[in-house]
């Protein structure tokens, strides 16, 4: 009886344990969640308020004045040409960066010479410089060619200069993996030519980097303002430049409606990047990588 009495906890002790204070680890976790939620609110609330301003009849009266799509209609009527022009410039920029950035990223990842590192630093230089400085450099060099200066191609060149490093870095990060080099060596030992290795081994394995770079290029091209503002003409006004004009010269409801239009264009690209599981360096989860490596190895062996 005495042993049973000693091993059994009294009801008062059980009651105290049930109402024990949270541990220090729990307090830290709660604090982290609180800070995260506050930061999210700090960033998201202005966006939500701007969207509401573009949907309300009168901004100064707020939602009580009613909701309307009138401002979106006016923005589309006045600036739909800028929307299509931004998409055309983004697609042209994407094509050029794909044709130049993918081979450049592959070569830079494979080369270990000092010259390749210097070239890589020069490619990244436009990111470190302000967009206005890059635009001024283009104007100084090519501003004298009137036909080129007033054409859409001039803006495309500026966007390529600005976005090419993102494509090169994303592709180079994947090409630098030792597994890809081993696959290429194995395919070469089986008699595959460089072209066959590049098509059947390199491109399938660097696809995550290409997708990441492509999404970054299109998103940055659509949203680029500083460089475009210096290079544009009244006939080559893009979406961000039009957004600045609406905030400067029109009522705030139209400017906010323009923000909604810009939001609609860019959000699908960001969601696509998350849905594909691709980060800024072009990496994906390990299981997908292993599956892709096995598939490309078997296809290379079959072709050889």
UniProtKB/TrEMBL annotation:
<dbReference type="InterPro" id="IPR035906">
    <property type="entry name" value="MetI-like_sf"/>
</dbReference>
<keyword id="KW-0472">Membrane</keyword>
<dbReference type="InterPro" id="IPR000515">
    <property type="entry name" value="MetI-like"/>
</dbReference>
<dbReference type="Pfam" id="PF00528">
    <property type="entry name" value="BPD_transp_1"/>
</dbReference>
<keyword id="KW-1003">Cell membrane</keyword>
<feature type="transmembrane region" description="Helical">
    <location>
        <begin position="121"/>
        <end position="145"/>
    </location>
</feature>
<comment type="similarity">
    <text>Belongs to the binding-protein-dependent transport system permease family.</text>
</comment>
<feature type="domain" description="ABC transmembrane type-1">
    <location>
        <begin position="83"/>
        <end position="273"/>
    </location>
</feature>
<dbReference type="GO" id="GO:0005886">
    <property type="term" value="C:plasma membrane"/>
</dbReference>
<feature type="transmembrane region" description="Helical">
    <location>
        <begin position="151"/>
        <end position="177"/>
    </location>
</feature>
<keyword id="KW-0997">Cell inner membrane</keyword>
<keyword id="KW-0812">Transmembrane</keyword>
<dbReference type="GO" id="GO:0055085">
    <property type="term" value="P:transmembrane transport"/>
</dbReference>
<feature type="transmembrane region" description="Helical">
    <location>
        <begin position="257"/>
        <end position="278"/>
    </location>
</feature>
<keyword id="KW-1133">Transmembrane helix</keyword>
<feature type="transmembrane region" description="Helical">
    <location>
        <begin position="198"/>
        <end position="222"/>
    </location>
</feature>
<protein>
    <submittedName>
        <fullName>ABC transporter permease</fullName>
    </submittedName>
</protein>
<keyword id="KW-0813">Transport</keyword>
<feature type="transmembrane region" description="Helical">
    <location>
        <begin position="33"/>
        <end position="61"/>
    </location>
</feature>
<feature type="transmembrane region" description="Helical">
    <location>
        <begin position="81"/>
        <end position="109"/>
    </location>
</feature>
């Amino acid at each position: 009886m005495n042993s049973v009495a000693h091993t059994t906890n009294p009801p008062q002790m059980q009651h105290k344990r049930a109402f024990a204070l949270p541990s220090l680890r729990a307090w830290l976790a709660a604090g982290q969640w609180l800070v995260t939620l506050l930061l999210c609110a700090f960033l998201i609330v202005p966006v939500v308020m701007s969207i509401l301003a573009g949907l309300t009849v009168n901004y100064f009266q707020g939602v009580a004045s009613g909701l309307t799509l009138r401002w979106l209609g006016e923005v589309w009527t006045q600036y739909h040409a800028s929307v299509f022009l931004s998409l055309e410039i983004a697609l042209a920029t994407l094509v050029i960066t794909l044709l130049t950035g993918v081979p450049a990223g592959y070569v830079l990842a494979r080369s270990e010479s000092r010259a390749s590192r210097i070239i890589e630093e020069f490619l990244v230089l436009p990111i470190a410089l302000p967009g206005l400085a890059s635009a001024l450099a283009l104007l100084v060099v090519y501003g004298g060619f009137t036909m080129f200066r007033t054409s859409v191609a001039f803006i495309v060149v500026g966007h390529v200069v600005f976005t090419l490093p993102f494509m090169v870095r994303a592709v180079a990060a994947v090409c630098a993996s030792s597994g890809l080099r081993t696959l290429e060596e194995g395919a070469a030992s089986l008699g595959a030519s460089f072209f066959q290795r590049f098509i059947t081994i390199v491109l399938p394995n660097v696809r995550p980097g290409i997708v990441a770079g492509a999404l970054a290029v299109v998103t940055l091209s659509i949203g680029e303002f500083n460089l475009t503002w210096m290079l544009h003409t009244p006939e080559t006004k893009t979406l961000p430049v039009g957004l600045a004009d609406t905030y400067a010269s029109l009522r705030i409801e139209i400017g906010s409606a323009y923000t909604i239009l810009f939001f609609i264009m860019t959000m699908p690209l960001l969601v696509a990047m998350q849905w594909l599981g691709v980060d800024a360096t072009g990496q994906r989860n390990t299981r997908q990588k292993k599956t892709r490596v096995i598939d490309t190895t078997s296809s290379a062996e079959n072709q050889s």
